[in-house]
Specification:
This protein is mostly helical. Helices cover 65% and strands 0% of the residues.
């Protein structure tokens, strides 16, 4: 027979496992639904489902069910998919103007970067054996 403390630890771990499994399952379902909504192409439903998936991931990380970096990675991947889908659905006339680049005249007007000064003081450097 196991010690009383070991039996209690086992009971606690079983309870935790069941609770964590439920949270993990709900989180995975939310992320999956968000992915399907993004693939469906409906902007509003995708936005809402992505938002709920992010909330589920944050909750799971806060409760210690998944590691915070795991939640951050999944949120990042989800938002990359969402933003790519939104960008693909945008009308070409509504694109943002391209950022202006520095011209050659502006580049030549900048002062040249200073080179480090040669070493003039102190003892000469010793050569190391190879």
């Amino acid at each position: 027979m196991a010690t009383r403390s070991a039996a209690k630890a086992h009971r606690q771990s079983v309870k935790r496992r069941i609770r964590n499994r439920a949270i993990k399952s709900a989180t995975k379902t939310a992320v999956k639904n968000a992915g399907l909504a993004i693939a469906g192409g409906e902007v509003e439903s995708a936005r809402l489902s992505v938002r709920s998936a992010i909330t589920a991931l944050d909750r799971a990380a806060a409760k210690g069910v998944i590691h915070p970096n795991n939640a951050a990675r999944r949120k990042s991947r989800l938002l990359l998919k969402y933003n790519a889908a939104i960008a693909a659905l945008q009308v070409p006339g509504e694109e943002k103007p391209a950022p202006k680049r520095a011209t050659a005249a502006k580049a030549s007007a900048r002062p040249a970067a200073k080179k480090p000064a040669a070493r003039t003081t102190g003892a000469p450097r010793r050569k190391t054996k190879k």
